[in-house]
Amino acid sequence: MPRSSDTEPRSGATAASTDMARVFAPLMREHDYAVDQIDGDLPPGLTGTLYRIGPGKWEVGRTLMHHLFDGDGMVSQFAFDGRSVRFRNRYVRTPQFRHGLVSGGPVRPGVGTPLPGGFWANFVKGKGPANPANTGIALHADRLLALWEGGPPHRLDPDTLETLGTYDFGGRLRGALKAFSAHPKWDPVTGEMFNFGQDFSPLPALNCWKVDRRGRLRRLARVRMANMPWNHDVALTTEHMVFVLDPYMFDLRTMFGGGASVFDAIRHRPEKGTRFVLVPRDGGPARVVEHEALVHVHVANAFEDGSDTVVDLVLFDDFEAIRRDLSDFRTRFTDLPSSRLTRYRITPAGRVIETPLSDRPGEFPQYDWRRSTRRHRYTYMTGRTGPSGEYDTVLKVDNDTGHTQAHEAGPHTYVGEPIFVPRAPDSAEDDGWLLAVVYLAAEHRSRLTILDARDLAPVADLHLPHHIPFGFHGTFTTRVADPGAPIPHPDRLPIR
C-alpha cells in the first residue's frame, strides 16, 4: 500500500503526467453495484454514507464547456453497512443536463463558457449562467441538497439520488438569484446550518441565511456592500459568520461590453485590500476589518478566543494562476500554485495577526466537524510533499505544534478532499478515519482510500472498475443509504 510519513518535503516533485488530465474525462454511465475489490479490511465501526459531488462531464450536447465550474453535477454515493460497501453515481437532473441530452448545446452560458452573441445572448436572453449543481453536497433535516453558489439548491433523494427539483425552503429563499452557496457550515451544538448567497440586484449584498434543525430558513442579515467581490466560502464561530472577502472584483465593462464570461470578467485588485466581515449570529450589525490583499478560495474552521475571532484558510500566492487553472483545467489544475495553511486572528481593536500553520502546499481543508465553531487541533488537506506537481498526498496538520504528517497515495495519482469520520460520537478529535477518493492515472480508474486519522496508516482501499471525474466536496452521515432502493430508470446518456 502507499506509505505514510512525517518526513521533510521532497526536494522536487514529479510533474503531473499527461495521463493525469484524464481525471477530467466524462463518466457517461450511472452505476449501482457492491464494491468487491478491497485491499485491507473494512472497519466494522464505519457505518454510514459518504456523498461526493463534482462535475461528471463538461459536454452539453456537442458543446465542450471551458471552465471547471461549468460541468454537469454528478453525485457519488458510498454506503457502508459495516460488512460491505455499495457504490452509486447519479447526475443531478438540472435543466442544463436534460437539455444536453436532446440538443447540440447549452441555452444558457456557464460562469466561464459564454454563448456567442455578446451581452444580449448571455445576460438578457440567456438570463445569466446555468446552475449545474456541481460544487457542494449537504444533508440537513433529512434533506440532501446539491449546491452551487449562484442559485438555489437541487434536492435529491438520499437513497436513490433521484432529483426532486430545485429547493427554495418553502419560498423563504429570496433574492434575484436565490443563491444558497456551496459551503454551508453547521453548529454541532444547536444543529443549525448557516450559509450565504451573493445578490447583485437591486444593490450588491451578502444574504446571510440560518436554517434551524428542523429545516426552516430565515435571513439572518443582509449586508449591503459596494465593490462586491466574488466570494466562495464562509466560516462559522459561536458568535459570528466570518467572511474573508479578497478583492476579486467584477469588471462590468468586460462582462457587459464584449460578452465575456462572468469569470473572465473577474480582476484581482490588490489595492482594494481584503475585508474581514464578521456578521453576528444574534442579528446585530456587521463589523468590517480592512487588511492587505490576500488570495484564497477555501476557509477551514473558525472560533472565538476570548475577545478575538480566529479563522483558518489556505493562502495562495497568485490569483491569476488560480484563474488560469480553473479555465485551463484540463492541462493545469492538477498542478496548483504554492499555498499554505494560515491562521488569522482579528482583535477588538481591528488588528489582524497572521500565523502560518504549515508550509506544505495543499487545498480543500477539512477538520472534525464536531469541533466546528470551536478551537480545533487538526486540519486535514489534500496536498503534496514537493513544491509542484499533482496533489498526491493526504496531509494532517497539527495546528498546535506545526507538525505535519503526510500519506502519499503513490505516483501519478490525484487525491481528493479528505473527509474525517469519528470512530465514535465521543472519540478524540483525530480518533477515526479519513475517506478520500484517489484517481489512478495509469489505470484510469479511482479508488476510495480509508486511512486511520491518528497516524495516516492505510486501513483499506476500495477499487472501482471505472474512474470518478475530478470532484469538489463531500459529506458523511451516519445514515446508511438503503441498498435496496432502486435507482429510477436512468436517462440514456450518449456513450463516447
Automatic annotation (TrEMBL):
UniProt-recorded Gene Ontology molecular function terms: carotenoid dioxygenase activity; metal ion binding
Keywords for the protein's UniProt record, in alphabetical order: Dioxygenase, Iron, Metal-binding, Oxidoreductase
Gene Ontology biological-process entries: carotene catabolic process
One of the Pfam families matching this protein, by short name: RPE65
Names of required cofactors: Fe(2+)
EC number: 1.13.11.-
InterPro entries linked to this entry: Carotenoid_Oase
Co-factor note (free text): Binds 1 Fe(2+) ion per subunit.
Binding site for Fe cation: 183, 232, 298, 473
Family per record: Belongs to the carotenoid oxygenase family.
Protein name: Dioxygenase
